Amino acid sequence: MKRQHTQRIAVGLITTVAALVVIPIIAVILYIIYEGMGAISWEFLTQPPYNGMRAGGIMPAVLGTVILTFGTTLVSVPLAIGAAIYLAEYASDNRLTRYVRLAIVNLAGIPSIVYGLFGLGAFVLFMNFGTSILAGSLTLGIMTLPVVISTAEEAILAVPQRFRLVSLSLGATRWQTIRYQVLPHALPGIITGIILGLGRAAGETAPILFTVAAFYLPDLPRSIFDQTMALPYHLYVISTQVPGMPLQIQYGTALVLLMIVLSLTFVATVFRTGMRRRRRW
Q1: pLDDT in tens, 204-235
Q2: What three-state secondary structure class fits 177?
């Protein structure tokens, strides 16, 4: 009887804590949708801003965010998957490997502003890329690396060891085992980690503040060495730097950014669920 009473109290406390976390988040999302829905229109999504950004749309900022997310994918995904394969399949379980894993986990927790300052020093100034799409993509890619490496390694390690043993016993090489047995089964976890990492990169402001984002550009970027507008920085600018800015445009911009990030999370969830249903182990 005493155990059941304690269990009820524990379940009640856990439920209360979960509600305290989830309810405010849902309330914020619903409030942004309510305030920003009135600004959403075809013109808002396809026109550039004008009249000191107090009117018009957000097309250059949306396009810049898409370009930076694509650049982040090119920079981070090959490196992250390669590093995860090495750590999970080839690296020895020694002190150095444990230190590397610890460093990766710690890098995932570093504030994004630190990555922005690193990108400013390394890519903008030292490599002389200037404030450009290239510098911003490299900075966001490095910021995303720890998250993707950790999730990809966990997904690879979760593949049962017997799959590897059977493949090797049939005469396959180690790489063939990884290529045809391990990676296909680890793919749902790897893809989920990639999409969640890109979702974080798409919503970050600090790393692009010093490396790529422009206050306002009359023209779209023509090369990777041009600056571009980006939604997170554009939202910061119209919320803090433009006096007399209509609130509806601010909330509309926030809503579009929110929908992009939530869409990536939704895609990751659907993909992971679909792949897990097909899995037979």
Answers
A1: 888 898 899 888 887 888 899 999 999 999 99
A2: helix
